[in-house]
Design goal:
Layout lengths: L2 E7 L2 H9 L8 E5 L9 E5 L1 H4 L9 H7 L4 E4 L2 H16 L5 E5 L2 E7 L3 H19 L3 E6 L2 H10 L5 E3 L4 H6 L12 H9 L13 H8 L1 H10 L15 E7 L6 H21 L2 E12 L4 E12 L2 H13 L7 E13 L8
Parallel strand pairs: 2-4, 7-8
Antiparallel strand pairs: 1-6, 1-7, 2-3, 5-6, 9-12, 10-11, 10-12
Helix pairs in contact: 4-5, 9-10, 11-12
This protein binds 2'-deoxycytidine-5'-triphosphate (DCP) and calcium ion (CA).
2'-deoxycytidine-5'-triphosphate (DCP) binds next to strand 1, helix 1 and strand 3.
Length: 349
């Protein structure tokens, strides 16, 4: 049975600040964003584990966090720096050469394939050490038989943890957890499930897939599969070695117009770079980062190599359509890959 690894950085933004300001270590500490640096009106992006003992959580008003913990230290968010640290971490992991999906700024999944649990644990220990030595950051790794199971194992091993749960062991591992511990089951679905008597994952085990589907649509089918140990979620490779692209952060709150305007600019800039490098491409991808820092990437391929701006714009717009409704968008990117040098490729067919 193939194994999957899910790696998630611990208290990421706050850990990045600690890495360059060691005097913060051991003290309760949050990273937040504040309008005009007026910290009490800001929102907590994340907190270190010392601050979490006071009940401080991501998304909480900074004023509330300070009320819970008067000695709380505060840092403004430095997103460019966190991006840089994220790149360093992802580069370390990528060098191992497994199919890899970058899931957010601080989380990635690997398809390890048919390797035994022992080898997977050794590999994970090595990756954790490498990341710690090279960046001073800690992470938690979960190993299991699908991407979702690996994530659930990772979540429950936090912080600085490493845990593997093999094959059939996963059902007993997850059964006593709340349904909300399944990635993708949000408060709305949780409420809907409570109405039919499901609050823990084990409550869903005996239920018919038809009933779950009736209540929750495709999420119901997903829950049925996860609860019964049938999940086969796989890594969707989204790392393209050779690519050309541009990203931009949007003004808040983003509007449909500002997003479309940014898409046009990114498409123009990407094509200019493609032409400057005398390249053509067959792959197009767009990336969206939401305000909660999760990311989605969608990609598509074109039959023949091209350097057409119109074609890129059309493909990119179709891809981004499906990504805009879920949550407010913070950042978008356009990228082309499957590159080839323009000479020797005909644009005519
Ligand atoms: N983030 C944010 N606003 C949120 C949630 C998260 O700005 N509402 C940012 C800050 C986090 C980063 O995204 O550091 C990663 O989010 P995680 O949910 O993985 O949380 P942490 O890495 O902070 O902590 P954990 O150790 O629980 O993974
Ligand atoms: Ca994290």
């Amino acid at each position: 049975m193939p194994l999957f690894m899910l790696l998630d950085m611990d208290y990421f933004f706050a850990a990045c600040e600690e890495a360059r300001r060691p005097e913060l270590k051991g003290k309760p500490f949050v990273v937040g964003t504040s309008p005009e640096k007026d910290k009490l009106h800001g929102v907590v992006q994340t907190s270190n584990y010392v601050a979490r003992q006071f009940g401080i959580k991501s998304g909480m008003a900074v004023s509330k966090a300070v009320a819970l913990c008067p000695d709380l230290k505060y840092s403004e968010s430095h997103e460019d720096y966190y991006e840089e640290m994220s790149k360093r971490v992802m580069d370390i992991v990528r060098k191992y050469g497994f199919p890899m999906e970058i899931m957010s700024i601080d989380e990635c999944a690997l398809r390890l394939g048919e390797m035994g649990m022992e080898a997977a644990m050794r590999l994970s220990t090595e990756i954790k050490e490498k990341i710690r030595n090279e960046t001073l950051l800690t992470c938690t790794i979960g190993i299991s038989s699908s991407k979702i199971y690996a994530k659930m194992v990772c979540d429950s091993a936090k912080p600085d943890g490493l845990q593997g749960v093999e094959g059939s062991g996963i059902v007993s591992f997850i059964r006593s957890k709340e349904v909300s511990k399944i990635p993708g089951i949000g408060p709305k679905a949780e409420e809907e499930l409570r109405r039919i008597g499901i609050s823990k994952i084990e409550d869903a085990i005996g239920k018919s897939p038809m009933l779950l589907m009736d209540r929750l649509g495709s999420l119901g089918t997903f829950l049925y599969r996860v609860a019964n140990g049938l999940d086969e979620s796989d890594v969707e490779e989204n790392y393209q070695m050779l690519s050309i692209g541009r990203e931009t952060t949007l003004a808040y709150p983003p509007t449909k117009e500002s997003i479309m305007e940014a898409m046009e600019r990114l498409t123009d800039q990407t094509i200019s770079e493609v032409l400057k490098k005398k390249m053509m491409f067959r792959g197009v991808s767009v990336k969206v980062r939401y305000t909660d820092f999760t990311e989605k990437i969608r990609s598509t391929s074109i039959k023949n190599y091209t350097d057409s701006k119109e074609l890129l714009a059309k493909k990119a717009l179709t891809l981004i359509e499906g990504l805009l409704d879920a949550k407010p968008v913070r950042k978008i990117g356009v990228r082309v890959y499957m590159l080839s040098e323009a000479s020797g490729q005909s644009t005519l067919f």
